[in-house]
């Protein structure tokens, strides 16, 4: 009696064709966007020759400069806050025993990943509107807080994964040698945790940098980030300058994701 062959989706007829179609639909528009960012003419669909014209135009555009600076400020602050909170949350959920409600705590930390982003954006809009009415403050901190709250689970996942893979014997030995909890964390835990912290910070940074929905709902007048500036331009006359800005954002995102992958790969070794 022959042993039945195990099911393998890769050997199913038509699987390769469907996978190829999916890759084409995903990446062909991105490739066309990058190609037409070098278009010499003003059309985003008709090729008129190679030129760096739109990159120079975007570099010299004061609105693009202001939006870029604001995006970098928000992403940097949000990644720092989110990573700090994620480190504390990861320590609390991995360096303590199982307690009643631990599943609820884990679910609350990862809630932004489990509900639609538009729901989070609307909830923040309502909450911030109440705060603005009560305080009269309409500054940048609303965006920083909103981005930080949304980015916490993205920073939490690699940090928690790193903590779960660490050997506890060194921390236990340091505690046996009368090391205080803070000294054990600073001298033993943090050096081993550092790759996960960097990976979480980079992931939070790129999520904040590319965010549109929460930014659109939480921002006040005159607080356009680079993604919301591009969204506003798409409602007017679209030129390859938007392609150039998108290409630069894509390059930054890919670089950070590759760095995140390399750090995640090195921390497992």
Terminus-to-terminus distance: 43 Å
Largest sheet: none
Oligomer status: single chain
Second CATH tier, the architecture: Orthogonal Bundle
CATH 4th-level superfamily: MetI-like
SSE ordering: HHHHHHHHHHHH
Strand content: under 5%
Helix content: over 70%
Number of strands: 0
Determine the mean pLDDT.
84
| Name of the top-level CATH class | Mainly Alpha
CATH topology annotation: MetI-like fold
Cα shape: globular
Write up this protein.
The chain has 269 residues and is mainly alpha-helical. It has one domain: Orthogonal Bundle (MetI-like fold), CATH 1.10.3720.10. It contains twelve helices and no strands. It has helices at 15-36, 53-60, 62-94, 102-109, 111-114, 117-135, 141-164, 169-176, 181-210, 213-218, 226-234, 240-268. The longest helix has 33 residues, at 62-94. It starts with 14 loop residues before the first helix and ends with a helix. The mean pLDDT is 84.
